[in-house]
Amino acid sequence: MDNITFKITTATEAHLDYASIITDEMEQSAKARGTGIAKRSPEYIQTKMKEGKAVIALTSDGVWAGFCYIEAWGHGKFVANSGLIVSPPFRKYGLARLIKKEIFKLSREKYPESKIFGLTTGAAVMKINSELGYIPVSYADLTDDEQFWKGCQSCVNFEILQSKNRQNCLCTAMLYVPKPQQPAQEDVALRDDFKKNIKLFERWTRLKKYVMLNLKKTKDKTFNIF
């Protein structure tokens, strides 16, 4: 396995048979992390492949190794790189970073004027995003497209999102703004020490999860009194 090589390419109709494997792993991975995820059907993933809006990673033997796809919101004003997943046997090869770079490149090619955003609970993904030029933002800076937020309804943390009036949740929001649209000074730019140390990302995500989940428990206990 040490000499393994990957082929990362834009997914096509030739990859449709991988859709069920991908969606199954997405669900299992979310359960293992104890976090929510907006569920996607194999048919939805296949549509992304047919549209040329997905990236897939395979080994030289044709074994599925990773995947990510593009979603456009607000009439293309915003783009999200969603569903990043790496098969468990291949998670220590830096594959997630390679896939993120490819899907980011594909997004810029297809939607050069769009803002690219992501919602994630993963510290590693946040670090990769920062390397690509994303900055952490409030939920208010994301798309107001109702179809996007409806996708969160299948997430186990949807109640938290609702209780925060869709302004916060366990996920951290990050945004990439094309250079012509960037302000002269980015007051919310990611701190330099965060770029260097993933431990700070991990500490942040653990703290956010602890605070959010305990607020939910406190709220539930209060309702139970009455």
- Helix fraction, binned, reads 40-55%
**If you compute it from the alpha carbons, what radius of gyration comes out, rounded to the nearest whole angstrom?**
18 Å
Count the E strands: 7
* Uncertain parts: 184-189, 221-226
Question: Pairing-aware structural class of the strands and helices?
Answer: alpha+beta
Main sheet strand line-up = 1-2-3-4-5-7-6
Taken in chain order, the helices and strands follow as EHHEEEHEHEHHEHH
Characterize the main sheet. Answer: 7 strands, mixed
Summarize the structure in words.
Helix content is 42%, strand content 19%. With 226 residues, the chain is an alpha+beta fold. It has a seven-stranded mixed β-sheet, with helices on both faces. A hairpin with a 4-residue loop joins strand 2 (54-59) and strand 3 (64-73). It is globular. The model is unreliable at 184-189 and 221-226 (pLDDT under 50). InterPro entries: Acyl_CoA_acyltransferase (IPR016181). This is GNAT family N-acetyltransferase.
Q: TL;DR of this structure?
A:
With 226 residues, the protein is α+β, with helices and mostly antiparallel strands. The protein is 42% helix and 19% strand.
Key attributes of the depicted protein:
alpha+beta; 19% strand; 226 residues; disordered C terminus; single chain; 8 helices; seven-stranded mixed β-sheet
Secondary-structure blueprint:
Elements: E1 6-10, H1 19-33, H2 42-51, E2 54-59, E3 64-73, E4 78-86, H3 95-110, E5 115-120, H4 123-132, E6 135-136, H5 146-150, H6 158-163, E7 172-176, H7 192-196, H8 198-225
Parallel strand pairs: 4-5
Antiparallel strand pairs: 1-2, 2-3, 3-4, 5-7, 6-7
Protein name: GNAT family N-acetyltransferase
InterPro entries: Acyl_CoA_acyltransferase
